Sequence to fold (276 residues):
Amino acid sequence: AYDYSDVANEFAEWYTAPRCLFLRDGVETGYWTSPYFDEGAGNINMVTYSQPIISQNGTFLGVATIDVEVDALCYADQCDVAIDYNYLTNIRPLGLLFSSLAMIVSLLCLGWTQYYRKDKVVVASQPFFLRIICVGCLILSSSIIPLSYDDSIASIQGCSRACMAFPWLLSVGFSTIFAALFSKVWRLNKVMAQAQSASRVKVKIKDVLMPFFVLMGLNLILMTLWTSIAPRVWVRTVPDENYESYGYCQSGKGAKVFLGFIAVVNIAALVLANVQ
Fold:
């Protein structure tokens, strides 16, 4: 819902434009709005024709409107031209195939690590962190799935959710992998430091989990703020002169700020891992 009398509201053009043209210039003819995507209703590209209603004494009473699908605004041979919506139909199976292969390999590695968890080589490689890395790879691989969504197989709301699911899976997957690697290196450094001091100490897994929780927590907080304040949404362009339309994920205002903070956090962790 919105205030259709608000001249600053772009969605109210169908009412404010003919009203302003009559009150300012005395124009009584109809008015065509700019093309728009009728999200949530017809979910198609449309234009609205608004005819101002004027009383006998010249008072503006309102407008009468009719919505017309953009595809219907053609003449003669133009009507035979099909609009290319550039759906992901042809490339979707390939993307899902690669995602499935990566997820299967991650599960196989996880199963292998669990099966040989008592082997000396696996024990030396810290199987707890190996499992976390496998889970991170599984999550990271699944981020391809939301990229396969478009409005040919899902609603606009569903596509918008997929738009935001991609950075979530990407961020969580990467953070899980890197945080596990960071903790492994930190644990190794602690063992080496104790060895140099000729003292024997057992470094437990829980002693080096702090970097994991800190890095993962920061990423989750930033992603939650991004989703709440400036979520990515699905939009589709009006067909151009070549009868082509494109759908894509559009970031909200301020999204670059959150993306920048996420990059800073993870790059800082990468630099710290190399320094230590």
About this structure: The helical segments are 13-25, 92-115, 120-124, 127-142, 144-147, 156-196, 210-229, 255-275. The CA atoms of residues 125 and 239 lie 56 Å apart. The longest helix spans residues 156-196.
